[in-house]
């Protein structure tokens, strides 16, 4: 593998439940190469979103290391941290809660271009139109408010915003889980196209092995904060070794069809 974009080692995070500390994430290590999709799978509460927050440094780990593009990400601060943050982005399940619902689409896409100084004021409308086209939306959508557009359109806007800074990694936490099946398929295809064209790595979090089989190269299956098993996605899903892997496969009946 090429030098990894993201390398996480021995990550741990404890929370308290009923006064007792418990590990939400327990000794988790993995890495993601350029243009690779690594999926995090596991039942609800297994620690997937906590890992996403740790990787994005929205929360700090108790122990562990996060290396992003070869740099010790947890040691960065100030301008160095801000510059590095432009290189990775995130897309969550519900863009309505991630954005101001009354903001226009243009405003949502203008922010990263302005904040990271990627285009001058006069260039930005053109860049916004190009971003919209890139994710399969009409330029006319720019004037609409976030709350006025459909869930699928909103998720395309979230993806357009994520790629505006030309990131090397996007963390997607249940990014297609709230979409109905046909829209979900279109968004997954868009993600695959963008990955091929821009060589973006994805940390793709999902509880749905059908979706993971369709997009991920490798998968890490979590059980109560620990890695139960990991490997090539299709091989693991075809022949899970861990109890939790077997249970997740058994709970996804459409895996038995040839296409998810
Ligand atoms: N801020 C928090 N405070 C206390 N417990 C938390 C917090 N965030 C998550 N947890 C707990 O940590 C565990 C893992 O949660 P999470 O990472 O959200 O799982 P997943 O995304 O796989 O559903 C769960 O038991 C959850 O209740
Ligand atoms: Mg979650």
From TrEMBL:
<dbReference type="GO" id="GO:0016887">
    <property type="term" value="F:ATP hydrolysis activity"/>
</dbReference>
<dbReference type="InterPro" id="IPR027417">
    <property type="entry name" value="P-loop_NTPase"/>
</dbReference>
<dbReference type="InterPro" id="IPR003593">
    <property type="entry name" value="AAA+_ATPase"/>
</dbReference>
<feature type="domain" description="ABC transporter">
    <location>
        <begin position="6"/>
        <end position="249"/>
    </location>
</feature>
<keyword id="KW-0067">ATP-binding</keyword>
<dbReference type="Pfam" id="PF00005">
    <property type="entry name" value="ABC_tran"/>
</dbReference>
<protein>
    <submittedName>
        <fullName>ABC transporter ATP-binding protein</fullName>
    </submittedName>
</protein>
<dbReference type="InterPro" id="IPR050319">
    <property type="entry name" value="ABC_transp_ATP-bind"/>
</dbReference>
<dbReference type="GO" id="GO:0055085">
    <property type="term" value="P:transmembrane transport"/>
</dbReference>
<keyword id="KW-0813">Transport</keyword>
<dbReference type="InterPro" id="IPR017871">
    <property type="entry name" value="ABC_transporter-like_CS"/>
</dbReference>
<comment type="similarity">
    <text>Belongs to the ABC transporter superfamily.</text>
</comment>
<keyword id="KW-0547">Nucleotide-binding</keyword>
<dbReference type="InterPro" id="IPR003439">
    <property type="entry name" value="ABC_transporter-like_ATP-bd"/>
</dbReference>
<dbReference type="GO" id="GO:0005524">
    <property type="term" value="F:ATP binding"/>
</dbReference>
């Amino acid at each position: 593998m090429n030098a990894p974009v993201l390398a996480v080692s021995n990550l741990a995070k404890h929370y308290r439940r009923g006064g007792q500390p418990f590990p939400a994430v327990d000794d988790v290590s993995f890495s993601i190469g350029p243009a690779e999709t690594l999926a995090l799978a596991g039942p609800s509460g297994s620690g997937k979103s906590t890992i996403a927050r740790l990787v994005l440094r929205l929360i700090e780990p108790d122990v562990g290391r996060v290396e992003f593009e070869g740099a010790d990400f947890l040691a960065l601060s100030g301008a160095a941290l801000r510059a590095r943050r432009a290189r990775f982005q995130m897309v969550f399940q519900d863009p309505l809660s991630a954005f101001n619902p009354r903001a226009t689409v243009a405003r949502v896409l203008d922010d990263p271009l302005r904040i990271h100084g990627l285009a001058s004021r006069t260039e930005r409308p053109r860049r916004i139109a190009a971003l919209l086209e890139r994710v399969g939306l009409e330029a006319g959508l720019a004037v609409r408010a976030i709350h006025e557009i459909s869930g699928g359109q909103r998720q395309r806007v979230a993806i357009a915003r994520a790629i505006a800074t030309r990131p090397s990694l996007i963390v997607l936490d249940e990014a297609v889980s709230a979409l109905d099946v046909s829209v979900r398929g279109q968004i997954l295809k868009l993600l695959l196209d963008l990955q091929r064209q821009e060589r973006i790595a994805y940390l793709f979090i999902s509880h749905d092995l059908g979706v993971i089989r369709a997009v991920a190269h490798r998968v890490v299956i979590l059980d109560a904060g620990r890695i139960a098993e990991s490997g090539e996605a299709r091989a693991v899903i075809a022949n899970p070794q861990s109890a939790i892997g077997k249970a997740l496969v058994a709970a996804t009946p459409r895996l038995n069809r040839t296409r998810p």
